[in-house]
Design a protein that fits this description.
The chain has helices at about 1-10, 15-45, 50-60, 60-75, 85, 100-125, 135-165, 175-200, 210-245, 245-255, 260-280, 290-310, 325-330, 330-350, 355. It is mainly alpha-helical. The longest helix has about 30 residues, at about 210-245. The protein is globular and about 60 Å long.
Amino acid sequence: MGSIGTGIGLASSVHDETWWILLLNFLFWMGLAQGMLVWSAAFRTAQASWAAGPNRIGRSSLGFLAFSIPVFLLLWTGRAHWLTWVGHPLPEKAWWLNEPFFFGRNLAALVLIALASAAFVGAYRKAESLPESAKPAHHHRLNVLAIMLAVAYALTYSLFGFDLMMSLDPRWYSTLYGAYFFVSTLYMAMAAMILVAALVREPLGLEAHLGPRQFQDMANILLGFGIFTTGLFFAQFLTIWYGNLPEETSHLIPRLYQYPWRGVAWAVLFGAYLGPFALLQVPSQKANPNYVRWPALLVVCAMGLERWIMIVPSFTTERLAGLHPLALSSGLVFLGVFVLVVVRSLSQRPQVSEMDLELALPD
């Protein structure tokens, strides 16, 4: 149904809004999938002895990255509907914002990080058949691949933040936006990991590896990255506020101070930042998966609103665009593919990796 609705939307009078929401869903769901994988790489890089269960959850999203590549190619066919500078080029930025270079660098980045992610997950799968004598060298290989993936993610998602979000308003710029984009993506990806872990731990028999300690640690990470994301946004906002330059303030004023988007901004403030911060101040509840799933769900939903308010007002600031049912139907496609990929991966290989269990600290 989602695919049919999206197809009708692209061919109807709401085709512009359908392209906008397709871009939003691409960035949101691709970020969730890639962020979960990068958390797995981060746990490996940190040699986290507690994270065998979360590491397995993180690796379950790999298949979604293959889906994201044809979606980007589809988006490129409709670039005239969402890349505002295509119809109104800026001569002073033409060296960076030109179609061949823009498409080439973003497609290359998307493919390269997908390949890096596949190599990382593939190394875990290869470890299942290795003899004991080969495992020390394989631990080193996994560590190298994890570090490479983490570095590639920071570079790639900074580029996506600048190109696929900031350039929608090509006269506006912020040197912090790339960092904000990849950090906020990790924030919502950790929330998604908590949700998946809370839902699958009992059906898959992973209670031993997704127990109170794991949920408490993931909740602490969620809290920390919520503070970090809020700090980056405030640092960006403060710089623009005291500079008070038209080319900088023109981006934030419609989103934060003017109707109808002002109400969405307040919803993002409380849903993505202040609300989860307050809910995660109860130490005794952070180890309870039935409790932690709610602030995690709040973060995922509110960050979807955050992507909406950052993307759509670049096209229209006078109305809450993108709410037509046909435009929204693409979200069902992305949600369905994401759930299918994660469930299939975890049902086929529910067990945690011996390579992670071997990191456990001695009693």
